Amino acid sequence: MQSSPDTPSAIADSAAQKSAPTEQPAQESAPTGPAAPEGVAAHETVPSDRAPADTGAGRRSKRPWIVAAGVVVALVGAAAGAGAYATAGDIPRGTEVLGVPLGAKTRAEATKLLAAEAAAWDERPLRVRVDGKDVALPAASVGLAVDVPATVDAAARSGVRLVGAEEVAPVVRLDEKKLEAALRAQLRSGRVTVKRPAIGFAGVAPVVSYPSPGLDLDRGSAAAGVRAAWPRGEVAVVSLVERAPAMTKAEVDRLVAEVAKPAVAAPVTVRVGAGTFQLTPAAIAKGLVFRSDSDGRLSPAIDGVRLRAAAAKELAKVETPAQQAKVTLANGAPKIVASVPGKVVDLGKLGADLLGVLPLAAPRAITGTLRATPAGTTDAQAAALGIKERVSTFTTYFTGGARSPRSQNIITIAKAVDGAIVKPGETFSLNGHTGERNYANGYKDAPVIVNGVLEPGVGGGASQFTTTLFNAAYYAGLKDVEHKPHSFYFSRYPAVIESTIFYPTLDLKFQNTTPYGILIDTATTGRSVTVSMWSTKVYDSVKTVYGPRRNITSPPTVHREDGPKCLTSSGLPGFTQDAWRVIRKDGREIAREKFTWRYDPEPRFVCGRQEE
Fold it and tell me: Which regions span the lipid bilayer (predicted)?
């Protein structure tokens, strides 16, 4: 039966006839049915319950396709395996940092491993050959250290690889400013020949130093060399390079003309609340500085410390100084006087406004603000000193009454020391506390020993106070740091345990070795001076045990030329003696310190030539 042209089989046959060879063997028509599957001739049918017959033609047409598919699957599998191998962990395989293998590790594992190694690297000194000179610097002194987290991040980004190794440089932290300062300190004098500009003032006249090219240290290249060499333990070579200055002569001249000269041409009025004060040209010249950056370029700035020192009297018109908490004696007992905060001009804020008006012509005015400033010693700090009881006291006596020059000197120095506080661990210096004892500070001429001879001298009598203070510190159990007994023995002082003073070569110093503060209280009468130490009692007792006097020598008679410098004396014998300071605490002796001194015989001075 012939198929209708509209049937699927007819269409298939028609298509087959167009593509088939001209001569074909007769074939049976295929039954009418659905279109054949793709890749199967339209006249072939594929039963649903079995595979197609394995004819020779079928084998030839299917096997290459199956083999190709297998190869693709194998390649995909191999690629996937290789990818998994290469990307195992957070760090790509084959990654190393200075020989430390980090590949295929997690970030945590890599960080732990690298940190252990970096701890040893950070202890490695920095070796530098700077301008031909070999030096070694502690790594920490210039901020050198391996940044472990940053290095691990760099290792994680180093790229995937299947074979081979990749060396990742460690990330190195470095304080380049400290490095530059350390390297410059090693340079021989005169090696840096580049000249940077400078602008200063002589009085109110600008003084200029112009720039010129020459050899200099290059911070950037030095830092790069150090970062590369130090982690590997190598020597970083730093050489000087030829550099041109960052500023030209014309730029410096313009800065002088536009800022320096007009700045000191007139005063600046500063209004602070209801008050005003003036910054004079002289004060402005002290406070105005031209700072150089790392490249040597100048810029104007206000140095608040220098300006405050130069304008102290003017600032005092609007400022209130802070009052520190202190310990005083009231009715025979220590009392804390509370601190009071002060108010000072905020020169940090004032500086920017001042710079803004300095280039302008007069009149010039700005507004300042006050800021609170705390006292150096707070109430709590004063209370923490533990000053609550008298722990020692000592008195010496003098003649002549309160009006004699010698007595006046004793009273003056006693007042200067009264109320001084020595904190735990501090060393008290009598010369440092009072300064030079001269006429300007209220001292008068009185007998002093100069080169073994009694002569009038400014401040005579201060040694009696010195001896009194020394004994008060001695019996408080404080540490003797510096003292020197007199060359002659004076009966008004305890032998050996006494001290003279002479500014600036002879001083009295003692250290507070107790855990409490020491308040020095002084008092004078017309015939005595007393020094007491107030604190918290630490020792049971402090006593002196004397040895016998020995090597006693008689005083000679010395005739001196009569005149205002000649002072007579009856003379005293010389001798050597030992004294032991015995300190007891908690019922037992804890210290026995030996003091020994040799006194020269004091001559019997006679004014006028000896009669023949």
Answer: 65-86
pTM (two decimals) = 0.55
Domains in the chain: boundaries: 1-16+29-48, 254-382, 385-607
pLDDT digits (tens, 9 = 90+) for 366-403: 999 999 999 988 899 999 999 999 999 999 999 999 99
Model confidence band, residue 612 (pLDDT cutoffs 50, 70, 90): low
Residue 308 near residue 295 (C-beta atoms within 8 A) = no
Can you give the pLDDT at residue 204? Answer: 96
How do residues 402-446 score in pLDDT, each as one tens digit?
999 999 999 999 999 999 999 999 999 999 999 999 999 999 999
Contact, 597 vs 485, CB < 8 A? Answer: yes
Strand partners, 305: none
How many angstroms separate the CA atoms of 502 and 435, rounded?
A: 11
- Separation CA 573–CA 602 (nearest Å): 6
CA distances from 424 to 10, 108, 390 (A): 119, 48, 16
Q: What is the DSSP letter of 597?
A: E
Contacts of 361 (CB under 8 A, 6+ apart): 262, 265, 266
Task: Determine the pLDDT at residue 572.
Answer: 86
d(Cα 466, Cα 500) in Å, to the nearest integer? Answer: 6
Q: What φ, ψ does residue 318 adopt, rounded to 5°? A: -125, -5
**What CATH code is assigned to 254-382?**
3.10.20
Q: How far apart are CA 498 and CA 492, in angstroms?
A: 10
Residue % of the chain over a pLDDT of 70: 83
What's the per-residue H, E or C state across 143-199?
CCEECHHHHHHHHHCCCCCCCCCEECCCCEECCHHHHHHHHHHHCCCCCCCCECCEE
Backbone angles phi, psi at 469, to 5 degrees: -65, -40
Residues 536-561 have a mean pLDDT of 93
3-state SS class at 232: helix
Phi, then psi, of 271 in degrees rounded to 5: -100, 125
Retrieve residue 216's tokens: 């200099």
H or E stretch at 214? strand 214-216
